[in-house]
Amino acid sequence: MPPGIEMKPAAAGVDSRDRVFCFNRSNEHPVLIFDSNGDFLMSWGAGMFRFPHAMRFDAQDRV
Q1: pTM of the entire structure?
Q2: Does residue 58 sit within a domain?
Q3: pLDDT for 1-48, tens place per residue?
Q4: What is the mean pLDDT of residues 44-62?
Q5: What is the reported pLDDT for 49?
């Protein structure tokens, strides 16, 4: 994990490009994205979720 990001995982999923999305119970970094080697790519969704517990992808890899 990059410095400053706390990991409290709630759910995970893999898209068609083998990126791993982790729904994280963190206000600042609720969705963490990793490549297939486990390297951190980015996070998004700050302030969008209150208490996440599931995620899914559609056919276009939308979360």
Answers
A1: 0.86
A2: no
A3: 788 888 888 899 999 999 999 998 888 899 999 999 999 999 999 988
A4: 88
A5: 85
CB 30 within 8 A of CB 22: no
Q: Taking the CB of residue 53, how many other CB atoms lie within 10 A of it?
A: 9
Determine how β-strand 31-34 pairs with β-strand 40-44.
antiparallel
**Quick check: is 17 in a domain?**
yes
Q: Which two tokens stand for residue 13?
A: 């999923």
Residue 52 within any structural domain of the chain = no
Domain count of the fold of the chain: 1
Q: In what order do the strands lie in the sheet with 31-34?
A: 9-14, 20-24, 31-34, 40-44
Per the structure, the complete domain to which residue 25 belongs is given by 9-44
Q: Is residue 26 a part of any domain in this protein?
A: yes
